[in-house]
Amino acid sequence: MTRPDGTQRSWSTRREDKQRRLQRAAAFADGRVLKPDRIVEALEAVIASGDRVALEGDNQKQADFLSRSLARVDPAKVHDLHMLVSSISRPEQIDIFETGIARRIDFAYAGPQSLRVAQLLEDGKLEVGAIHTYVELYARMFVDLTPRVALVAAEKGDRHGNLYTGANTEDTPTIVEATAFGGGIVIAQVNEIVDTLPRVDIPGGWVDFVVEADRPAAIEPLFTRDPRLITEQHILMAMLAIRGVYERHGVLSLNHGIGFNTAAIELLLPTYGEALGLKGKICRHWTLNPHPTLIPAIESGWVESVHCFGGEVGMERYIEARSDVFFTGPDGSLRSNRVLCQLAGQYAVDMFIGATLQIDGDANSSTVTTGRLAGFGGAPNMGHDPGGRRHASKAWLDLKTDPGPTARGHKLVVQMAETFQSGGVPTFVEELDAVEVGRAAGMPIAPVMIYGDDVSHVVTEEGVAYLYLARDEEERRAALAAVAGVSPIGLRHDPSRTDDLRRRGLVAYPEDLGVRPTDARRSLLAARSIDDLVAWSGGLYEPPARFRSY
Amino acid sequence: MTRPDGTQRSWSTRREDKQRRLQRAAAFADGRVLKPDRIVEALEAVIASGDRVALEGDNQKQADFLSRSLARVDPAKVHDLHMLVSSISRPEQIDIFETGIARRIDFAYAGPQSLRVAQLLEDGKLEVGAIHTYVELYARMFVDLTPRVALVAAEKGDRHGNLYTGANTEDTPTIVEATAFGGGIVIAQVNEIVDTLPRVDIPGGWVDFVVEADRPAAIEPLFTRDPRLITEQHILMAMLAIRGVYERHGVLSLNHGIGFNTAAIELLLPTYGEALGLKGKICRHWTLNPHPTLIPAIESGWVESVHCFGGEVGMERYIEARSDVFFTGPDGSLRSNRVLCQLAGQYAVDMFIGATLQIDGDANSSTVTTGRLAGFGGAPNMGHDPGGRRHASKAWLDLKTDPGPTARGHKLVVQMAETFQSGGVPTFVEELDAVEVGRAAGMPIAPVMIYGDDVSHVVTEEGVAYLYLARDEEERRAALAAVAGVSPIGLRHDPSRTDDLRRRGLVAYPEDLGVRPTDARRSLLAARSIDDLVAWSGGLYEPPARFRSY
Predict the structure, then answer these.
(1) Which secondary-structure segment (H or E) carries A354?
(2) How many CA atoms lie within 13 A of B2 on its CB side?
(3) Is residue A239 one of the residues assigned to a domain?
(4) Could you give the CA distance from residue B141 to residue A327 in angstroms, rounded to a whole number?
(5) Are B214 and B234 members of one domain?
(6) C-beta atoms surrounding A548 within 10 Å
(7) Nearest CB to B307: which of A142, A348, A431?
(8) Is residue B183 in some structural domain?
(9) pLDDT tens for each residue of A24-38
(10) Considering only CA atoms, which of B455, B424, B439, B265 is closest in space to residue B359?
C-alpha cells in the first residue's frame, strides 16, 4: 500500500484564504465592527469573483443594507457571483445580475421578483442552479452549496460579533452555521451595536464582522389576515374542515398556511368549535408564524403551544405576555427558527392544511398560475406524507387503510380551495399552468407545489373528498371531481356515482357533516376586524399601520 | 364580541415555576455552577414528579454523570418522570424505571438496553410513548413533547453557562433550544469548567446550570470498522454497487451507513474506482460520521466535503488537519450537528445506501430480528424518497421513469445485503421478524426500518435489482427475487423470467456490469487494517485502544 503523499498539498486552503480576506477587510473595520461608510470597500475586500454568496433574504427578514451595498460594488472587481437567496424579495437582489456582479442563483421563492428572474433568464444574464423549498436550500449549504460568504441580518450585535435576532431568528443561525464552520466569512448587519445584548441567539465566534445598518432590516408582515376580508364562503369551508377533518380525525397538532380559509378556522374555534365541544380535543399544538387571527383561540384556552418559523410584526408585546404558549427567550421575545419549525411541521404534527390556486384531476396543486416562476417556499416540506416518520398518533393511524402487516399511517395533507377563484377562474383544471411554466423556463420537472399522491383530503365549498379512502387512481379522481363543482374537473363527475361515494365515505357534502350552509355567517367569527383582534389581546397586539382602521 | 377575561389567568406559569425551582437549586450552586457533590440534591430541587425530562443519550455522547445522579434521587421526592432519551445506551437510564423515578419514555433507539425495555414494559413498570427516528423525537420537542428539564453533556463550559461541545455536538443544541426557549431548565455536565472556551457552541444564556462531571462524558466509537473484517463477499458487493449504482447514476452526494459493505466501497474508491476513471464523477459530497475508512479516499482527493452527525473517537487530529473537507470551528475541531446533517442527508444528497438484516419480498427491511425492540435511530430519515424535495440532480432525474407532465425524480434508496447472514440465516424472508416483535409489544404498527416502496435498488452478491424500473408490484417482487439467491424469496424466482428482466435492465448480474467475481480480492482494498488507515492519515488518526494491534 502506498500513500500518495509525494505532493505537499495544503488541506486548509479555505482557512488560509479566509485569513487573507479578513486581513484585507481589516482596513475598513474596528476589530469586528465594520465601518458602515466603508461597507462597499469591505465587501470588495472580502468577496472574490465567482464566490458562492448566501444573502439572507428570508421569508420575512431581509439583509437589505448588505444587499444594497453589494449592488454598489465595482463589477470589474467582483463579478460572476453564485448567489444563494432563499426568498428573492428586493429589486437590488436582482439588479446585481444586470450589472454582472452575479451570474448564477439558487433560490426557494421569488414571488415579487419572479417576472424579472424570468426575463434575465431569457436574456442569458442569470442562470438558475435550482429552485428549492426553503429547507432544501439550507440542507444543500451543508453538502454541495456551502457559502464562501454569508451576508445576514440581526436586530442587535455587540463588538464581539454576538448576535441578537429578536423575534425573527428565521434562517440566520442555519446560514451562519453552514458558512462559519465551512470555513467561510460571515458578515451580519445589525440595527444597532450595543454593549449588552438582550440575549445571544448566535455566538460571536461564528461571526467575522458586524456592521450597523443605515436603517432597520426590512421585515414584512406576511401573516396578518384582516378578518374583514373573510367571506361566508370561507366560513362555510372552515366549518366543513372543522367537522369533516379536525373533529373526525382528532387533529391535535397542525400547521396552518396563511390563507383566509385557515384564518377563518382559527377564528371559528372559540365559537363554532366551542359549541361542538371540541376544546381540548383538537388544535392544541401548532407550528406556524404568530398569526394575529390565532389570538382569540389562544385567549379562549384552546392553544397549548405555538412554535414559529419567524415572527410577525405587531405581535411582539402579545407574545411576550403569553410565554406559556410561545417559545420565548429570557428577554421575553420570541425565538423562532425556520429549520426547526419546518422539521416540527414535517415530522411532529398530525396535519398540514393549506390553500392553493390550482388543482388538477389527480390532486396535484400549484400556486404557479400567472406565467411566473415563483418557486416553492416552505409548503412542500410540510405538505407531504413524510416517509421518515415512524411514531403514531390517533390522526395518523386513522388514515391507515391497508390491513397488511407492514402498513403504516399517513399524515393528513389537506388542500382547501374554492372551486373558482375570483373572476370566475376555475381552481380545478385539466392541466396545471405550472406544467407550461416549467416547460417554458426549461425546468427539468414541472414546479408542482403539493403532489396529489400525498394529498389525503380536499375541502371545497361543495364538501370534503377523502382521497385516502380511494381504492385506486380512478376512484380518487372520481371523489375529487365530486367536490369540484362546475369546474372542468367537476363537470367530469358522473352524478350517478355520488351516492355510492358518499355511502362509502369518500365524499361528504355539508348535510353529511351536519353543516348547514345558511349557518355560515360572519357573526360566527370570534373577531371580525383587526380592531377585534386588538381587543381580544387586551391591547397587546399592535397591528402595522396599513392594517389599522384608526 | 366579548373577551372572556373575567378570570385573571397567568400566562407565564412555566416561567414563574422555573424561577421557583432555580431559587431552590441556588443553595447547591455557585452562580451557574452546580457543586458536583450536591448534584443529587440539586436535581431534586429542579425536577418535579411527573416532569418531562430530556436526558441526553445521543447516538454516541451520553450525559452519564447526570444519568447516574438522576438514578440516585429519592423516588419519594421525584417520581413518575416522563423521559425523552434519543438513544438508550446505559443501564442507569433504565434503572430509574425500576425504582419508580421514571414511568414513561419516548425514545428512538434502545439497542443495548432493548431487552430490559421489553421486560419492564411487560412488567408494567415502563410505558412507551412512542418509538421515533432521531429527528422525529427532536421535532416533537417543539410541538407536544417540550422538555421541562434537559440534562445534557458538553466537553467544556464556563461560569456563564457557555458550552463547548467539541467534535460531538450531535443533538445538544437542539435539545437545549427546545428546552430553554420552551421555558424549561437546562443543566449541562461538562468535563471541565474553564475561563476561556475554545469556541462557543451553545450560548450561556440558554443554559441554567453547568456542573463538572466526575469523569468525561461517555462517547462510543460506533463508526470505526476494522478493514481486516471486510470479506471478499463485501468487496464483490462493493464492486457491484460502484459499477451498477454509483457509476451508472453519477452519484455525487451521498450518505453511507456503518456496515462493512459500505466500508468496502469507501476503501475501493482509491483503487477500483480510480481504475474506472471515476474520481470527480462520483462521491464528492458526503453526509456521515467521520468514518476512518474514508481516510484513503480523502487522501486521494476524492472527497470535497463531509458534514457529520457526530464525531468519531480518534479522528480529532486528522479532522483538524483536513479543514478543507470537514466542517470545523476556528479552534480546529469538528462541528457536528445531528439535526442539520439529517436534514442534509434527507433533502440534499443523491443517495442513501445502507445495510440491513432482513428484507421481505416487497423490499421492506428491518434490523429487528432478535425479538428486541431496538428502535429506529436515524436511517429512516434518510432512507426514503423525501416528498418535500423539489430540486433536481442528475442521479435523481435518472430515476424518473414516468413520462407524465407532473412526474418527478426519485432519491436513490439502496439496500445492500448478502442473501444469507452468518450462520446460514436467510436475509430475504417471507415475513419480517419486526412484524411479530411489533405485535408482541403492542405497537400500533410494525417497526419497519426502510419501507419497500421507497427502495430504488437492492444489491446482493448475486447482482443488482433496479426496483424503480418495475412497472408494477409483481414485477418489483420478481426483480428482487432474482437477486435473492437461494433464500426463501430467491427460491420463488422463476428462472425463465431472468433473461427478460436482465434485458429490460431490472436486474444486472456481475457479468452485466463488467464485474468479475474472481477480481473481488482483499488486495483491492486501499487499506487492509487499522494500521493501514493510520499510515494513510500520516499518523494523524489515533484509533481507540480496542482497535489497535500494537
Answers:
(1) strand A351-355
(2) 4
(3) no
(4) 11
(5) no
(6) 12
(7) A142
(8) yes
(9) 999 999 999 999 999
(10) B455
Q: Which of B183, B384, B447 sits opposite A388 (nearest CB)?
A: B384
| Cβ contact, residue pair A323, B11, below 8 Å | yes
Same domain, A262 and A208: no
Secondary structure E strands in A10-146? 29-30, 33-34, 52-55, 61-62, 81-87, 102-109, 127-131
Residue B182 is classified by DSSP as T
Chain B residues 74-93 with a CB less than 8 Å from chain A: none
B167, B230: one domain: no
User: What is the C-alpha separation between A373 and A120, in angstroms, rounded?
Assistant: 12
Q: A39 and A120 share a domain?
A: yes
Number of domains in chain A: 3
Question: Which residue range forms the structural domain that includes residue A71?
Answer: 21-219
- Block mean pLDDT (10 aa), chain A, length 550: 60 96 98 98 98 93 96 98 95 96 95 86 92 95 98 98 96 98 98 97 98 93 94 98 98 94 98 98 98 98 98 97 97 96 97 94 86 80 96 97 94 97 92 90 91 97 98 96 95 91 97 98 98 98 87
Which of B406, B432, B450 is most worth mutating to test chain A (most A CB atoms within 10 A of its CB)? B406
Residues A178 and A70 in one domain: yes
What is the ipTM, given to two decimal places?
0.97
Q: Does B252 touch chain A if contact means CB atoms closer than 8 Å?
A: yes
Helix ranges (DSSP H) in A99-230? 114-122, 134-141, 172-181
Which cell numbers hold the place of B525? 482494498
Q: Among positive and negative, which fits the CA dihedral B540, B544, B545, B546?
A: negative
Query: How does pLDDT run across B306-361, given as a tens digit for each residue?
Result: 999 999 999 999 999 999 999 999 999 999 999 999 999 999 999 999 998 899 99
Could you tell me the three cell numbers for B31? 452562580
Whether chain B has a CB inside 8 Å of the CB on A382: the answer is yes
Within a domain: B298: yes
Q: Which of 160-189 (A) contact B at CB < 8 A?
A: 162, 174, 177-178, 180-183
Whole-angstrom distance, CA of residue B470 vs CA of residue B462: 19
CATH code, domain with B456: 3.40.1080
- Say yes or no: A409 contacts chain B, CB-CB below 8 A: yes
Q: Say if residue B196 is in the same domain as residue B327.
A: no
**Residue A344 and residue B408: Cβ atoms within 8 Å?**
no
B7 falls within a domain: no
Q: Which residues of B touch A284 (CB under 8 A)?
A: 144
